[in-house]
Amino acid sequence: MRIAVIDGQGGGIGKAIVAKFRQHFDDSIEIVALGTNSVATSLMLKAGANEGATGENAIVYNAPKVDIILGTIGIISTNAFLGELTPKMASAIAESPAKKVLIPLNRCNLFVTGIENKPLPHYIDDAVDIVKAHRGD
After folding, report:
1. Region 44-50: what's the mean pLDDT?
2. DSSP SS3 for 1
């Protein structure tokens, strides 16, 4: 199973996602770090991603080639991450046939009703559970 983790800006959320997924799934999954900038990609690689790529073309090219895409809800919103996420990136992610597991952080003026407000690590744990269920674990 190939999983893409998409992040930008400082890369801290992507790093946390990669580290938690590597801890839970060891080497049974392939993690592709896709950063909107090289800092984000580098942090995700250091956290245990198998491979990484940076920028618009990398995200547009890889989005349809993975089974699951992980990131904050902003990755499907144009100009998220203070403008780092381009319209082409958001479109490629949203249109990808991959299952999207989105963490509902209330940034980018996106608010999801019915979601309880909890710390980021708890949302990442929820994402792990969703991927386990998808795999049939």
Report:
1. 98
2. coil
The CA distance from 21 to 91, in Å, is: 25
Contact 9, 38 (CB under 8 A): no
Residue 53 CB neighbour total at 10 angstroms: 15
- pTM attached to this predicted model: 0.93
Give the single-character DSSP code of 86: -
Report the C-alpha gap between 96 and 112 in whole angstroms: 21
Instruction: In whole angstroms, give the CA distance from residue 85 to residue 69.
Output: 15
What is the strand order of the sheet 2-7 is part of? 51-54, 30-35, 2-7, 68-72, 99-103
**What is the C-alpha to C-alpha distance for residues 122 and 59, in angstroms, rounded to an integer?**
26
d(CA 46, CA 130): 24
